[in-house]
Amino acid sequence: MTGRTGRTGRGGAQASAGDLLELVRSGRATTRGALQQATGLSRATVGQRLDRLFRAGWLREGAGGPVDSPLGGRPSITLEFDDEHAVVLAADLETRHARAAVLSLSGEILAEHSGTLVIEDGPEPVLGELGRWFAELLEKAGRRAAEVCGIGLAVPGPVDSETGRVVQPPIMPGWDGYDIRGRLARAFTEHTGTAEVPVLVDNDANLMAYGEQRTAYPDCSAFALVKVSTGIGAGVVVDGSIYRGTDGGAGDIGHIRVPEGAQAQCRCGAYGCLAAVASGGAVARRLAESGVPAASGSDVRDLLAAGDPGASALAREAGRHVGEVLATVVTLLNPGVLMIAGDLAGTPFLTGVRELLYQRALPRSTAHLDVVTSRLGERAGLVGAGALVVEHLYTPERVEERLRALGV
Asked: In this predicted model, what pLDDT tens digit does every residue of 285-322 receive, in sequence order?
């Protein structure tokens, strides 16, 4: 439905309460008169379907808007999506650290927590601990567990969006094919005593891209984000939707083979992967070999923030390797925005990316390209995960299912 103009495309009496909610949420029709015009429904039918949404608590009346009738008269009352009727839980897992939050339906973070969670410990303890974090965050935000409509989770591996299971993740031992949705839903119930809620899982770079694009670049029709932390991954948003490929493998650029890495073994077991020479983990390894204490991408980030010259030089070199691969990505996708995010996303790395990207890509591919760094920072994955849940639960079809379940 999103992105259409004029009528909803469902035609007359077929336009449902869910279609009306979609029109209001998108801002394309925010008065009763505008909804009639957009759908072709009668005034009485629009009123009946709006009544269901009001009774569910999903719509509210706002201030007076423009006059609907060309003959003039009193201003029409505007309709608004009530983003206070529920909340969303979101979490972003990294290799040794995690962040979780309670978000409003409009994406505002109401309470947040970050701490150590080691992904190599496996899904059972990690997801169980997230359930405990969620319960504490709800109390901190002053919201009830019964108000939670869904949970979004970002993970550092390829995800089959149909099943929510990670597929052969190089840096997530023990997670391959695991039922993440089911375990996290149970963990939420165990720690809150409420019914299970829907759980959506996606790759972290995908959700970071989704959050950043919706927040800062909503008019960008082709948006790409590259996350360089312990590993390297990319997320792509086209026409407002995440592009995942056939089975969730789109954007896995960290495992493209590069000549410079011929002798370097990647965590996936292969030799020559981009991640083996240009990720935060690879830079940390080279620093450690030179006597500088560094074990992960976050250690490299701290060294870069302190202005360490060795870390800066290696980050710039890593950026050049990534920039060479991105020249092909940019030529293929022709994005309007290329965002660099993650532990290495600073000036040295960005300088290296630009050096090779503009040197190797066709001028036509970069003529209207903005190469930028993250706007949301460490919260990008949370915002994207929250938005994924909201967009999933409030599609017209799912709205109808939920209204029937509520008995309205």
From this structure: 999 999 999 988 889 999 999 999 999 999 999 999 99
Which pair of tokens denotes residue 16?
Answer: 């449902």
For residues 348 and 323, the answer to whether their CB atoms sit within 8 Å is no
- C-alpha–C-alpha distance, residues 224 and 339, integer Å: 6
Helix (H) or strand (E) segment spanning residue 312: helix 309-333
Report the length, in residues, of the chain. Answer: 408
Neighbouring-strand partners of residue 338: 224, 371
Q: Is 63 exposed, middle or buried (0-12, 13-18, 19+ CB in 10 A)?
A: exposed
* pLDDT tens figures, 149-169: 999 999 999 999 899 999 989
Q: Take residue 96 and report the two structure tokens written for it.
A: 């040794």
Tell which residue, 32, 56, 62, 31, has the closest CA to residue 46: 32
Eight-state DSSP code of residue 65: -
Q: Which helix (H) or strand (E) holds 233?
A: strand 232-238
Cβ of 53: how many Cβ atoms within 10 Å? 22
pLDDT band, residue 65 (cuts 50/70/90): low
Please answer whether residues 283 and 318 qualify as being in contact, where contact means their C-beta atoms are separated by less than 8 angstroms.
yes
Beta-carbon count within 10 A of 141 CB: 19
CA distance 264 to 296: 17
Residue 210 tokens, joined: 């989704």
* CA distance linking residue 59 with residue 296, whole number of Å: 47
